[in-house]
Every structure is written in structure tokens, then in C-alpha cells.
Amino acid sequence: MRRIPPGVSAPTSSPAPPADQPIAPAETRNLLTLALHLIVFRIGWTFKQESIIMAVFLDAIAGQDWVRGLLPTLSRLGQNIPPIWWARPLKEMDRKKRSLALFTVLVAVPFLLLAGLWAALGGQSRPWLPPVFLALYFGFSVLYGLQQLSLGTVQGKLIRPTRRGRLLWVAQLLGLPPVVALMAWLMPQWLAEPQTGFGRIFFFAGVSFVVSGLLAQGLWEQPGRTAEEAAEARRIVGGLRAGLAETWHVLCRDGNLRLLIAVAFLLSSVLVLAPHYQALARVRFQLAQVQMARLAPGWLVIQTISVSLFSLAIGFLADRRGNRLTLRLLILGAAVAPVLAVVVAHLPGGLGPRLYWTVYIPQGLSPLLLLLLNNYTLEICPPEDHPRYLSTLTMCLLVPFLSSPLAGKLITLTSFEAVFVIAAASMLASAVLTFWLKEPRHERCPAHAQPDFVRAGCSSPPAHG
Q: How far are the Cα atoms of 96, 140, 155, 251, 396 from residue 239, in angstroms, in the given order?
């Protein structure tokens, strides 16, 4: 049996609280408060959306495929490493909502700085601006990764498993009208006037994040321990080394988590493509900036509507049939996007530009993939291990996202079509692997039913799965 490093707690095999047992007296209030928090955050997120808005801005100040490919890499590099360090302190915090509120407000800082910088430059690019923008975006990604870890932990503590899907679709459905109205009203004119418009977009996103963070303070949360226990916990310093040791131990013990990470590795290929969809349209259809300013807001609105409508079905299905089946169907649906993009890009008779908006219907499934991965992760471990399991998943997702600049370079060396088809094939392989994941609500997956690399472990049998 592998010896546990000092200061590292072994994950237990106890499941999350029973699905029919309320885990907070004010669960309904917390669900509505979290939904409002997510709605306002989503408004800000839509105005800085990576696959269209950030990619269009980076193309305007830089233009190379490999530079655009840095967006997913920097995003994941920032999001996936810091949670390993923060998972232990977050676990020891008596009120997790403070971490959520703090990091949601801090997420706004890079965009407010970028808005001020763009205004100071008079809307004109400089040779040093692309690296400065990428550095600020990396800073945002670090803070966003900590915010998402805090959000997942708060959700795991305050919302029971069979109501997390409801939280997803309530937030998406109620958030749809204001998001679409604001996008239709503001985005076309702001993109049409990039000298002033980009600054306004960044400022609007930053203010939305600040308001969302303040809303998180309205959550009702009981302390996780007594005053004496909290005082003792504050004397514990986790550190990155201890966090990595605990992460390694979790991976060694839990074969089902290792299989989930393999699924996530493969499905991440479609997420790496996110900023390249608009570039495919711009290059294949030879669109000028004025044409992009007219088309891009419509694409973003279509994707936003798609996310909300799919969330309704996915949240309902996840609550009633479990996250494993829902994740499998979601992966298969998201795999349609790169294939459809290639097909529409080669339609004859000028149909491509008029029909390219259809690509953003299945593309609307991609943002939900990580949400479903997180929700599934929350169900396969006890509540005290939520921060560690979530941070382990995000850390392991870093590896495929490091290949994002390579994907951009491959587009230059080969074609958009070749890279998009490879990504679709990777998604199909990911969907196949989900058949070996266990469904924590209905069954226990025996070790002999899992692939060899999952059974192998490190040197000790899995704690569960």
C-alpha cells in the first residue's frame, strides 16, 4: 500500500450527501442567489467571449494563427495550476462564499485595466500591445480558475446533486433575455467602431464581474467547523508542494477519476478550436472588418441562445438520469460543430456566409462540457474532497491545452479542415470512453469492467470505482 505523504489527507470512499437530503436549510434561497450571480457573470463573460470577441481583438492587433492559438493555452495555464495550491486553503475555510466573492471581483481587474489602456492609446495598436494583452488575459485566467474552483466548491456545499442541473438551466434560461438584448443593442455598434468599441466592451465586462461578485455575498452559508477548529485550520499552510502531493495521491487512489481525466483530455480538442471558428469564416469567405462587425454579433447571439436552450434540456436530463449519460450525449453533440464548420465553409453559390451561423448552434454545447465535468466530479467524491478533486481535474486539463498554439501552427501548415476533422474524431473517442465511467447515483463500476490503464493505478487499488 502506498504511504500517504505527511500532511496529506487520504480521500475517503464515502459518497456525497444523499440526493434527497437537503444540505443547507436555505437551499432554495441559495439556488436563486447563485443563479443571479451566474446570470450577471454570464453577461460579462459574453462580452469578453473567447471564441469570438477576444479572437477578433487579437486578430486586429496581431493576426497570426499561432498567436490566436495562445488564447486557449494561456487560459488553461492560468486556470489549471493555481487551483492546486488554493484547494487546501479553500477546504479549510469556514465560509467558502468569501472566496467566491473575492475572486469574482478580482476577475474584473484585468479587463478594467485593458479598457483604460485601449482608451489611453486612442484605439490604436502598438507592437508591444499583443504581449501586454496576453499577459493581462493570463492574469484574468489565473483569477478565473480560482473563481471557478470556489464556485464549484460552494455549489457542492450548498446545492444537492439532484438540484445542480436545475441551477444550470435556471441560470441559463433566465439569463438569456438580458444577454441577448444587451448583445443586440450594444455589440454591433461597438465592433463597428473598434477604436472606441473594444474599450467599452472590456469596461462593460469588468463592471459585470464586480456586480456578480457582490451578489455572491448574499449566499447563506453555515460555518464548516467550530470557532476552535477554524482557528486551528488557519494555522495550516497548504503550499503548492503539498497540493501536488495530495493531487498525486488522489489520482493513484481513484481509477474512475483517472478515466474521467482521459475523457476530458480527448474532449478538450473541441475547446482548443474555439478561437479558430471565426478565423475559418473570415479566411474562407474573405470577410473584411466591416463584414465581420456585422456578422460576429449574430454568431455570438446564436451561440448564447444555443447555450441557454441546451442547458434547459441538459439540466433536466442530468438531474433525472445522471451526469454520465448527459456528458456522453453532450460530447457527441459538440463533435458536430467542427464537422459542420468544414461543410458550411465549402458550400457553393455564396451559401457559406449566409449559413455559417448554424455552426454556432452545436458550438453552444462546448461551454457546457466543463460544467458537466465539474458536476460529475462533485458526485464521485465526498464533500470535503470537492476542492481537491476539482483542482485535480483542472490541472490535468492543462496538458491538452498546451497544444493550442500547435493547433494554430498546424492550421497554417495544413488547413483549417484537417485540424477540425481531427478534433471531431478525438471527441468521438472521448464519448466511447464514457461507457466505462461509473454512474455514482445508480451503480458501482467494478474494477474488471474498466480499461487496463485505469485498473493499473500507481501502486494501490482505487478507493472507489
A: 18, 21, 24, 19, 18
Torsion of CA 27, 384, 79, 164, to 10 degrees: -30
Q: 66: domain range?
A: 27-219+237-456
Q: Are 427 and 335 in contact (CB under 8 A)?
A: yes
Nearest-angstrom CA–CA distance, 99 and 103: 6
Contact indicator for 92, 237 with CB cutoff of 8 Å: no
CA distance 99 to 97: 5
pTM to 2 decimals?
0.68
Q: State residue 225's pLDDT score.
A: 56
Return the pLDDT at 239: 53
- Among 6, 24, 50, which residue's Cα sits nearest to residue 271? 50
In a domain, 226, yes or no: no
What angle, rounded to 10 degrees, do the helices at 323-334 and 336-345 form? 10
Whole-Å CA distances, 388 to 139, 155, 231, 247, 410: 22, 14, 21, 7, 35
Neighbours of 303 (CB within 10 A): 26
Domain count, the chain: 1
Q: What is the dihedral of CA 382, 387, 389, 395, to 10 degrees?
A: 180
**What span, in angstroms and rounded, lies between the C-alpha atoms of 418 and 337?**
14
List the grid coordinates of 181: 438584448
Q: What is the pLDDT of residues 306-335, one digit of tens each?
A: 988 888 888 888 888 889 999 999 999 999
Element at 266 (helix H, strand E): helix 255-272
User: What's the half-sphere exposure (Cβ side, CA atoms, 13 Å) at 463?
Assistant: 18
| In a domain? residue 464 | no
Is the pLDDT assigned to residue 87 strictly greater than 60? yes
CA distances from 424 to 96, 268, 334 (A): 38, 11, 9
- Mapping DSSP onto H, E and C, the string for 80-131 reads HCHHHHHHHHHHHCCCCHHHHHHHHHHCHHHHHHHHHHHHHCCCCCCCCHHH
- Asked whether residue 270 is domain-assigned, the answer is yes
Report if residue 20 sits inside a domain: no
Q: How many CB atoms lie within 10 A of CB 128?
A: 8
Residue 227 has pLDDT above 60, yes or no: no
At residue 383, the pLDDT reads 81
Q: State the CATH number of the domain containing residue 171.
A: 1.20.1250.20
Q: Please name the residue that has the C-alpha cell 478507493.
A: 463
- The DSSP call for residue 52 is I
User: Cα separation of 434 and 263, whole Å?
Assistant: 7
